[in-house]
């Protein structure tokens, strides 16, 4: 099983179906389980960190017309340019993300705060040199999108955690950025999201991040090192 499958996708797995949004994993068999999302806003559908796959445009069309594409991590340029050209829209990149913008061969529109008229606002998170991402949060329905620093089915969870933080992020968890948000669901850039009691799952993960670091290191340290190395390729 490859960590990240760089070949063209021959089919996708739909995830996180709900009114106004859907996600997909373009390479269902890869270990890294890179997830893409289509979320509907007042101005149309926004594609978050998308990876292309045959038939995915029909999945997106069920949500609505594409208003824009967003790259929200230094390591998530992915196929943003291909989607932007196909739908004749720019790629939106937060002003603090450079690597993701440099690897996107399409017109770039920088932004801070609100992502178009999607009702999402971007929250800066740069805990370490070389690690920069943007959380998206929409207060009206409590949706939070986390590109890289945590996941529910890809990152190791420890004890009764339902959301696992990336190993190094446990040392500098984004408590200040996320602790005061009213969260109903959490979507991730890797794997399926959390929809049941998401607020409690997030609070628990943040509160116990450092305490659970030693066990997370033993349980998943080698796997996380492989994922990090593959992301740099």
From TrEMBL:
It comes from the Archaea. InterPro entries: RibonucZ/Hydroxyglut_hydro. Gene3D superfamilies: Ribonuclease Z/Hydroxyacylglutathione hydrolase-like. This is MBL fold metallo-hydrolase. It comes from Natronoarchaeum mannanilyticum.
């Amino acid at each position: 099983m490859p960590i990240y499958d760089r070949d063209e996708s021959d089919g996708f797995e739909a995830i996180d179906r709900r009114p106004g949004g859907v996600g997909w994993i373009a390479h269902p068999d890869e270990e890294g389980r890179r997830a893409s999302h289509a979320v509907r806003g007042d101005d149309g559908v926004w594609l978050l960190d998308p990876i292309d796959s045959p038939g995915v445009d029909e999945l997106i069309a069920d949500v609505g017309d594409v208003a824009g594409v967003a790259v929200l991590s230094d390591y998530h340029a992915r196929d943003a340019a291909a989607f932007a050209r196909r739908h004749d829209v720019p790629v939106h990149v937060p002003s603090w993300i450079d690597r993701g913008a440099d690897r996107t061969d399409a017109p770039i529109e920088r932004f801070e705060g609100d992502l178009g008229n999607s009702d999402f606002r971007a929250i800066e998170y740069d805990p370490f040199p070389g690690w920069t991402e943007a959380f998206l949060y929409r207060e009206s329905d409590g949706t939070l999108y986390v590109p890289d620093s945590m996941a529910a089915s890809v990152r190791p969870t420890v004890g009764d955690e339902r959301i696992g933080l990336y190993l190094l992020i446990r040392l500098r968890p984004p408590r200040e950025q996320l602790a005061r948000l009213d969260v109903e669901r959490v979507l991730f850039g890797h794997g399926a999201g959390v929809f049941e009691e998401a607020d409690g799952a997030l609070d628990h993960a943040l509160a116990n991040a450092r305490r659970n670091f030693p066990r997370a290191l033993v349980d998943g340290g080698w796997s996380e090192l492989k994922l990090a190395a593959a992301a740099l390729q």
